[in-house]
Amino acid sequence: YPLFYSPGGFGVNAGLVDAHNLACKLTFVKNGFAPNSYLSNYDMERRPVVEEAIQVAVDNYRRGLIPAKILGLDRGVVSSAMSVINTLSPQLNKIAKLYPATGNEADPLNVSKIMFDSLLQAGRFHLNGYGSEKSTFDTRSLLNKFYDYDKARQRLKEIVENKEEGLPLLFPHIDIGFKYCIDPARLENTRGTISEQGDNILSWTSPPHHRTMSGNYDDGRTRCSLRPGCIIPHVYLRKTQTKSTISSLDLCNLGTTFTFIASDLKLIRAMVAELKKNPLHKENKTLMTKFILIVPTSQQNNTFDVEALDIASVFIDISGDWKALCDEWDVSGVLVRPDQHIQLVLSNESDLVSKIAQLSF
């Protein structure tokens, strides 16, 4: 299954999906299923997704600093403390060498720790103003002359209680809703946007300024989609031959370049006939395709001769979710890559020839 990065990782974990994407491409090329030029799509597909992941992560990190800033805490305090310690470290080492018998107290690491803790304690002193009203030393009265604690308390309360200003931790659109650009010709003219042109949705996520007021980057766009560049939605299917239940994601493998999945047998036959007549080629490489038929439960007792039909397997749409998706997106068949991203969608037989002719990969 696809691996997704965490925004808390500031884009670093995006390397997991990078490896997933690149491993599939390397496998294609090494096994002869795709030409060497197929590797060039790696940057086109992954760079926009990773760039946004980094932007979202940094933006979320900055939002996390807001409460600390309201409290009067600043990263500069820590930076200053470290700067002082680093400046004094050579002198501390000299002292330790001159007075080796003084014990652990003169150990440079111990002295550095004491200095660091003392500096941080001084930097946090003003936080005493948020303590109990009852105190032998009225810290708040003293510090309130320099800092408006009542205003800060109210602002913190607003952040905690108002979900629109809270710190978002879930990013479904970034985590699982990203799409790949599968049409290089449209990349430069539409970078950073999402637009729909016919059956094609340009395959990258929107920039962070599209985030909703709730702080959720999803804004309702993360949903199962049968569109080019999207990950094929998960639905449960039952294989007619073995009665085993699998996910639609498991229909794709590294044994072929593409998997054509359809619920219309006529469309599959038309696709098989078209590819026999005009095989998919790329730089003299024949791109292999296997065919999967998905049928409703009403046909689960039917007998299908897969060899005669030139298809690999027949699966039962157990819950009807696949049909619902096809109806929603007006799709009869999808051509899927081994990394589970959709390469091409077909609504009917009439647009089969033209769309295959326009296929770019």
TrEMBL record:
GO cellular component labels: mitochondrion
Gene3D superfamilies reported for this sequence: 3.40.30.120, FAD/NAD(P)-binding domain
Gene Ontology terms: biological process: ubiquinone biosynthetic process
Limits of the FAD-binding domain: 8-55
Keyword list, A-Z: FAD, Flavoprotein
InterPro entries according to UniProt: FAD-bd, FAD/NAD-bd_sf, RIFMO-like
Domain of life: Eukaryota
UniProt keyword GTP-binding, yes or no: no
Molecular function per GO: FAD binding; oxidoreductase activity, acting on paired donors, with incorporation or reduction of molecular oxygen, NAD(P)H as one donor, and incorporation of one atom of oxygen
PANTHER family, per the entry: FAD_NAD(P)-BINDING OXIDOREDUCTASE FAMILY PROTEIN (PTHR43004:SF6), TRK SYSTEM POTASSIUM UPTAKE PROTEIN (PTHR43004)
Protein known as: FAD-binding domain-containing protein
Organism per entry: Aplanochytrium stocchinoi
Organism classification: Eukaryota, Sar, Stramenopiles, Bigyra, Labyrinthulomycetes
